[in-house]
Amino acid sequence: MKRITILGATGSIGRNTLDVIFQHRERFQVWGLSAESRVEKLAGIAIESGAKVVSIGAGRRKAFRCALDGQQTDIRVVEGEAGLQRLAEMPE
Predict the structure, then answer these.
(1) What element of type H or E holds 41?
(2) What angle do CA 77, 20, 69 make, to 5 degrees?
């Protein structure tokens, strides 16, 4: 199974990519997702996809956690440019 990270997951290309991944769940696992500011949409996608790590714009961690609406998850959150770079460099 291939692990996939989608940068810009809340945009049209990201959503189309996720649609393809969801059609082939036996072949792909969403590992990471990123979005600059659409934290509510990103939270929904993260839960739906089972993502392990998300990268969001600086200062948006609390908003992301609130957008999870109390759901208990083990999603790791990284922020800002450094967080995005860390996500992109993860070997998974």
Answers:
(1) helix 39-49
(2) 35
Nearest of 36, 37, 55 to residue 46 by alpha carbon: 55
The structure tokens 């940068």 sit at 7
Token look-up 């049209």 returns 12
Interatomic CA distance for residues 81 and 49, integer angstroms:
23
**Amino acid (1-letter code) at residue 60:** R
Strand partners, 28: 2
69 pLDDT tier (thresholds 50, 70, 90): confident
pLDDT confidence of residue 73: 82
Asked if 21 and 50 count as a contact pair (C-beta separation under 8 A), the reply is no
Q: What is the pLDDT of residue 84?
A: 95
Percent of all residues in the chain with a pLDDT value above 90, rounded to a whole number: 89
Structure tokens at 74: 């083990």
